[in-house]
Every structure is written in C-alpha cells, then in structure tokens.
Amino acid sequence: MKKKYQNWLIAGFLAALFVVGYLVVAKPDSAGPGVLLNLDNQSNSTETYQLAVSDLTAAVDQATGHVLVSFKLTNEEHFNVSSVQVLYALNVADPNNATYAPINATEANGTYKAEIPSRFGDVIYYKVKVVYDGNKSLESDVQSITVKDTTAPTATLSIEYNATTGNATITITASDNDAIDRVILFYAVTADGNLSSVTFSNVTLTVSPYTYTLTVDSNTTDSTYYYLDVYAEVYDLSGNMARVPANGTVQLYANETKTIGG
Hints:
The chain is mostly beta strands. It contains 2 helices and 18 strands. The termini are far apart.
C-alpha cells in the first residue's frame, strides 16, 4: 500500500506540473489582443485619398503689373506628382476654347506659386494643371482676374519766377508705377493772395516735362507785386489721381527772382 500511495503522489505531482506548464505556455501576453486587433483593423480597412487644388488665389503686383498665383495641393504626399503648372490666357473672347500657355509652379513650405507676365488693363484667365502617377492629370476650374492699377502717381511742383520778364515757369515732376496720362494745372494771379472768391484757371499738360509759363506781372518797373497760387492734379492711365500739393496751393509773391517748391 505504501508503494501504491507513493505512485499516486508522483502521478499527482506530474499532473500538477503539466497543468502549470500548460497555463504558462498558453497564457496570452497582456498586449497581445490589442496588437492583434490593431493588425486586424489595418488589414480590413481601406483609406482613399483625393488629390485636389486648394487655396487658389491671384493678386496683382502693383510694381510690375504681373499676376501672382498661389495655391496648395491637398493629399499631395499620397501621390507621385511629376508636374505642377499654371496655365493662362490673356484677353480672350472665349476662355473655354482658348489656347493656354504653361508656367511651371515652384513650391516652398507647401505653397505653390507662379508669376503670369501681364500688364495693367489685361484680363487673365488661369487654371492649375497637375500630372501625377504616370500619365494621370488634374485641372482646376478656370479663374479670371482683371489687372488693375490701384497705385496713385507721385508728383512735385515748383515755380521759377523771373522778375525781369515778369514770367513764372511752373514745372510738375510726376512718376507712376505704370504711366502718367495727363497733368491738370490750376493757377490764379491775385493782388493780395486772398483766394476766398477766386476762380482758378487751368491747363492740361500731356507731354513730359510738364511745364507751363505764364505772365504774373506785365509791368515790372512799378512797385506793385502780385501773388501766384498754383496746384496740380496728376492722373495715370487707370484714373488714379495725385494732388500736388496735397492741400492748399504753392504760393509765389512776385517781388524778386526766385524759385519755390519742388
């Protein structure tokens, strides 16, 4: 009986070892289900991406009259993009059937840019073309912009008076980001410089240098001296106007040879 009892003990001990060993081997790792679930989700899910043109804008460079186009490409990182261009047409009657010229766009910090060589007064039609994944292509809708000059001219005004002849030469120096169209000079000669009830005469100057000579004092031998008040309006081709001086007049007291203003 004693030997039989020992055999039972040995058998029980072996059985216990078997159970413990099974549990140790078969017990899953604590991160295992999460990893398996995650892998299973990845294998069964499908994500699709659509390439698109976004944030498409255009602005006129007031210094040159060129149009600066900028935009972004949504989901670009998921595609093999081989070419990004801006296509443009100038002053066409039918933008849907026009011939568009290409300009390669350059990218910096996720934004593409291209400069269209236009002039003030042009109407620009433009769109973006992207070639990707071999021979696939994407084109945005056609946009348009009118190239407007919104910058006024700059100008100065001076008067050169000759007391011997009694004549004053008025000179307006003007510049513009595009071109000067005309200068309208307003002037008045008074005995006392009081302009409250004076009607100014005017003359239009269209050729640079913009100068005009008038007689302030026809009798330079007497002791009576007159006042000359002037101002000018300077217009560019787009109708932007600059007044010089900005307020009031440039006034000359014609008592001696002198130059004022400028």
